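In practice, a research group might receive sequence data for several interacting partners and want a quick structural hypothesis before committing to experiments. The following worked case mirrors that situation: the sequences arrive first, and a predicted assembly follows.
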Amino acid sequence: MSRASARERMGALLLIVPLLAFLAVFFLWPLWTMVRASVVDNTVSRVLPRTAAAIVSWDGQGLPPAQVHKALIEDLRQAEDQQALGETVRRLNSAVSGFRTLLTRTTNAVRDETNSGAIDLGDLDRRWKEPRFWLALREAVPPYTDRNLLAAVDMKRDAGGAIVSEDPGASANRLIMFRTFLVAAIVTLACATIGLPYAMLAAAVTGWKRTVLLLAVLVPLWTSLLVRTTAWFVLLQNEGLINGALQVLGITDGPLPLIFNRVGVVIAMTHVLLPFMVLPIYSVLLSVPRNLMQAAASMGAGPLRAFWRVLLPLSLPGLMSGSLLVYMVAIGYYITPALVGGANDQMISSVIAFYALGTANWGLAGALGVILLLVTMILYFIYGRLSKSPQLLGA
Amino acid sequence: MNTAKMLSVAGCVSALLIGWSVQAVQARDLTVVSWGGNYQDAQRKIYFEPFSRKAGKPVLEESWDGGIGVLAAKVKAGTPNWDVVQVEAEELALGCADGFYEKIDWSKLGGKDKFLPAAVDDCGVGAIVWSTALSYDANRLKEAPKSWADFWDVNKFPGKRGFRRGPKYALEFALMADGVPPADVYKMLATPEGIDRAFKKLDQLKPHIVWWESGAQPLQLLASGEVVMTTAYNGRISGINKTEGKNFKVVWPGSLYAIDSWVILKDSPNKEQAMDFIAFVSQPENQVKLPEYIAYGLPNKDAAAKVPADLQKDLPTAPENLSGAVALDADFWIDNIEELNKRFNAWLAQ
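A structural hypothesis for the assembly, expressed as tokens:
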């Protein structure tokens, strides 16, 4: 008996092996790579091993001793892997702007055959006389770092190693992240306000009316995100349909600012994400027996009271999962805010995209991703507690 | 009956699988990546399709919006799924230093001296000389703006302004609007005071700016009247004038020009063919067709000399357009883009 059940369990496990493999390859492994990229910092010690060994003995005062200079020249001469060297340069330039051209020039000079004699780095480029370049080099020696994670939340370590805030005006990741959560929350609220009545209507009617209502939700879902966003651009602009109609009807004198601001972003994102709210609520409502409302009426509840005490609590699971879906998708948006938003509507994913695609600074991109993931997980945890709590809405 | 059916289904499935795996093993066709929009439409007509006919093989194409990270990811993956890419000056310098590109075989191109000196690189061959400039709709503005100072003058020219999002271009144009002579812009930007000055100048215009990201957007903004002036890529302006009968104008003094180059991604499986493609598009008789569609300057000197005079006057390389224009300093931006972008984002968010 127990043997048979063990075999059954094995069978069941075998059945989910593809799922586990899928999760490992497409979820856990990329996630692990991202976390690793944000804290591992071994490129300098790998590519410039002599310099790394020599520079740790330097106390950070003034300029490093001659043997560090010599080690760096030797390292740059020996570095064979051009791509690894490039990674090092990117890492250092991200710490101090200017390292890129400095190292390129230095590498070319030390590899030049005619320069076989002693090379004075300070003569080669006067930037080598500035301690900040050497300090950045020394900071890059330890194999792990928290600088990316700190930079992701606008912090850094000062010369003494203490954690301090970035200078105001130097970075705005915290603000942009907060804005991302705020916009996502507004969009979720707007989706819930429109989606709940809509789903109830769609569940209440039958036949062709229901088909039309559902198609109205599904067709936009099948349309490209870019097309839908561009359509809003046409509708919302100053000489667009909405402003044109308002002015013809005499409701407004001039064009309302509907685009390139928060209003435009919320309108467009709400439209794009509405199906994710309507469909879960709709599917939950379908399973609610239709005679429940009649039963409530027969017991003396008016339509409002019946809605409040019966239908709304029953649709709550759908509303909750819909909200979660909309919120989670919304925090990752950046095409829509980029097209219809203004200067103050950019979301954190556009910053991540800049580092990942624009400058190949995968460490910082990973760190921003990790922070975003952490905050999202905390919010999800709070959501999980709230959605279990029976006090909510008197349900 | 049933067995026969099952067998035939199994046969179909295995045939499909074999077909699919054969295709996976077979080499991918040459993939060329450019910048989309009416520019890539023109390239398709004069480069991609003729080359494909000549080689007897299809040419796949994609478009992108730049970024060294995109190329880094493709090269680090082992075998890139792009072969030939048109890159901007910074991507050329960065990628070449980091070993992301194959070296160019200049003997196939007829020698380096056939090209503008700035279009010659170990890793890339110049594709176009293009310009970012002040643009406006001449049908809407009675008085023509002449300079970046006019661009900043919201009393004389009321209305919104379009600007490419990001510090690149914005800082240069701000300094020129503030009275810095074009030739001194990068000297000024190399100092912290110069950067502060540029941001301060941008402060004045900030409430009136609409930020755009891809090259097709400013055309849309101008066409819809959403902005009265915008920065835009000069070739797209002349392109839309031709195709849609617009009357958009470009202000050449104070414009920033740069060279885009063709590169071959490292370890591309179609290296040979990629080199042939670059040679093909660099031949004067092929390159000379470009200005008919889109007004970009030609890096091949023989091709540039053959452009008819009526098209010549719209090119960034025309001598009268070059006076007062500035060459984009790729070295400045590869050093400073990360730090300045951070500051730019913080400035935007204020």
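Before designing any experiment, note the following. Residues 29-129+259-322 of chain B form a domain with the D-Maltodextrin-Binding Protein; domain 2 fold (CATH 3.40.190.10). The first helix of chain B runs from residue 2 to 25.
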